[in-house]
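hey team, just a heads up i'm posting the complex here instead of the shared drive bc the drive is being weird again. everything in one block, sequence lines first with there labels, then the predicted structure for the whole assembly after. its two chains so it's a bit long, scroll down
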Amino acid sequence: EVQLVESGGGLVQPGRSLRLSCAASGFTFDDYAMHWVRQAPGKGLEWVSGISWNSGSIGYADSVKGRFTISRDNAKNSLYLQMNSLRAEDTALYYCAKAQGEILTGFDYWGQGTLVTVSS
Amino acid sequence: EIVMTQSPATLSVSPGERATLSCRASQSVSSNLAWYQQKPGQAPRLLIYGASTRATGIPARFSGSGSGTEFTLTISSLQSEDFAVYYCQQYNNWPPLFTFGPGTKVDIK
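-- predicted structure starts here --
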């Protein structure tokens, strides 16, 4: 059974940093691209960042480019999101999502999310 | 940047009726279009990918069509568990950039 478990969310002050993690199991992690998607309270889905199986292809939404860094450790079956210079508008539930295959595919499994709240 | 729009914002449908949801891309995304369903308090679920291919375990009452800039998700006979928000998503850009539409809420008439 595919499982994606996010962690690392919490309350953080504007301008500070936070690192999210996603522990994956139930599939061959290094065969698939992975993504982060966020959802602000009461709002729609926003793709944040994606990374190919070998980290050779990485993309970011314009809203986070230069502040967030996605990475993965295939030996640990884990995906990460380093978030720096956090802003109030980064407040959201952050989902980890598995791609169906290569990076340009849909997202077939999602975690339950970890909540990030940016506030003073 | 490719902008996705969805219409209508809210669709009120009676159980057993047909629902037709539209998604439009600001430029061609070929068939690189997915549909997701999200219920309150739950993560999204992949319904359709490649514009028209049902994901594993998705009932046949869900169907997708379209290519280029115009796409449709049809639910042939709404069941109680289908009342939810539906999002389209394009995955055509390189370097990778993905865009979700704003969503269509399907509620009970």
